[in-house]
């Protein structure tokens, strides 16, 4: 139940899950934002280079300088 603000006295929940990406970073998101592309480490589809991991701006710059 929300106890303050514009949504005061409204009751509701979201299903939130915690996910680990291929680099080991953990983040949480709503269950509705996630879909399955495989089971365990076996993928049912192919992924582009980088396994679908978005690099930060600093990681992109470092990668460009190393090339």
Automatic annotation (TrEMBL):
GO cellular component, one term: cytosolic small ribosomal subunit
Organism: Cannabis sativa
GO biological process: translation
Small ribosomal subunit protein eS4 C-terminal domain residues: 21-66
Pfam family, one: 40S_S4_C
Transmembrane segments: none
GO molecular function, a single term: structural constituent of ribosome
Residue ranges of coiled coil: none
CDD domains noted in UniProt: KOW_RPS4
Lineage: superkingdom: Eukaryota
The protein's name in its UniProt record: Small ribosomal subunit protein eS4 C-terminal domain-containing protein
């Amino acid at each position: 139940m929300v106890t303050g603000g514009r949504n005061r006295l409204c009751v509701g929940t979201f299903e939130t899950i915690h996910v680990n990406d291929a680099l080991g970073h953990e983040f949480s998101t709503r269950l509705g934002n996630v879909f399955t592309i495989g089971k365990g480490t076996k993928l049912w589809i192919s992924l582009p280079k980088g396994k679908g991991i978005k690099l930060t701006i600093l990681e992109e710059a470092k990668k460009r300088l190393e090339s």
